[in-house]
Specification:
26% strand; Rossmann fold; 15 strands; 29% helix; alpha/beta; 2 domains; globular; six-stranded parallel beta sheet; seven-stranded mixed beta sheet; Quinone Oxidoreductase, Chain A, domain 1
């Protein structure tokens, strides 16, 4: 089968289209003929050599796909060959076929064509699981950065569906407009004094921050959090190392949590996928959450797709198209 392989750690140019051996499903696994694969920031980190797959996972990049069931492993029921599906992966998505535990395979969300569906499950699972960790409740104030990107554009809508007041940041006027169209109550340019703007938009501070920036924004987030506020770290675009005075946590009753979806055991991922199907798919079906914009590249242009994501010029999701239909 054809797959995109990183020949060595480096820039987008290290991605090469090669022939590799197709995987076969084992006990409790499903093989999928891939139509599309979502491109995520975690993919960029893996390509650079900073985010290796967990033990036993494919070293091919790619954390989410859509396609059709190709083959069933032993002890798998509820699926038939040829059925459309989406899947959450620990790796292997940039390829014509993937193998994944059956609990991480779902029917596609309603109202989406199968190619567009390739860019939904990873962001949905990430946001749902981490906002559950952050205990976001109706009436609270929620902050997420990069509101025009994949995670941000989904998080805005899901947090609004939970009844939160949503604050987000973005880097251009067009992206700020896009965030407001998605439902953000406050869309703020991170090129300006965004902490002051967030402070002005809230009376008691921010209750939950979904933080993809890490070290660079740690001080700002701790200042902005309300009493008993929760900081949930899901990425390190702004670095991994910062100094923290623990007295700041005690003063407000602040809690900090960090979780990697990819590293969780299959049993936890299966439970998260079931929650996504139960809670998110209906919201997509009734229009409460709208599909975000997406841009499609053929598999052979994976390097261009990575360069586009790294540029920061995109809005919504980027999808690699692996098959023609």
């Amino acid at each position: 089968m054809k797959a995109v392989v990183a020949s060595r750690p480096g820039g987008p140019d290290v991605l090469e289209l090669r022939e590799v051996e197709a995987p076969s499903p084992g006990l409790g696994e499903v093989a999928i003929d891939v139509l599309g694969a979502g491109v995520n920031r975690a993919d960029l980190l893996q390509r650079r050599g900073h985010y290796p797959p967990p033990p036993g996972a494919s070293d091919i990049i790619g954390l989410e796909v859509s396609g059709r069931v190709a083959e069933l492993g032993a002890a798998v029921d509820g699926w038939t060959v040829g059925e459309p599906c989406v899947a959450l992966l620990a790796g292997g998505g940039y390829a014509e076929r993937v193998v994944v535990p059956a609990g991480q395979v779902l029917s596609p969300p309603p109202g989406l064509d199968l190619l567009a569906a390739a860019g939904v499950i990873e962001v949905a699972a990430t946001v749902v699981s981490n906002l559950q960790l952050g205990r976001l409740r109706s009436g609270e104030v929620f902050l997420v950065h990069g509101g025009a990107g994949g995670i941000g554009s989904f998080a805005i809508q899901y947090a609004k569906a939970l009844g939160a007041t949503v604050i987000t940041t973005a880097g251009s006027a067009d992206k700020l407009i896009y965030c407001r169209l998605l439902g953000a109550d406050h869309a703020i340019s991170y090129r300006d004094d965004w902490p002051a703007a967030v402070r002005a938009a809230t009376e008691g501070g921010v209750d939950v921050v979904l933080d993809n920036m890490g070290a660079k924004y740690l001080d700002h987030h701790l200042d902005l959090l309300a009493p008993n506020g929760r900081l949930v770290i899901i990425g390190f675009q702004g670095g991994t190392t910062a100094t923290l005075d623990l007295r700041r946590l005690l003063a407000k009753g602040t809690s900090i949590a960090a979780a990697s979806l990819r590293a969780r055991p299959a049993s936890e991922k299966s439970a998260i996928c079931a929650q996504v199907a139960a809670e998110v798919w209906p919201l997509l079906g009734d229009g409460t959450i709208r599909p975000t914009e997406h841009r499609v590249y053929p598999l052979a242009e994976a390097a261009e797709a990575h360069a586009r994501l790294e540029s920061g010029d995109h809005t919504g999701k980027i999808i690699l198209q692996i098959a023609s239909s």
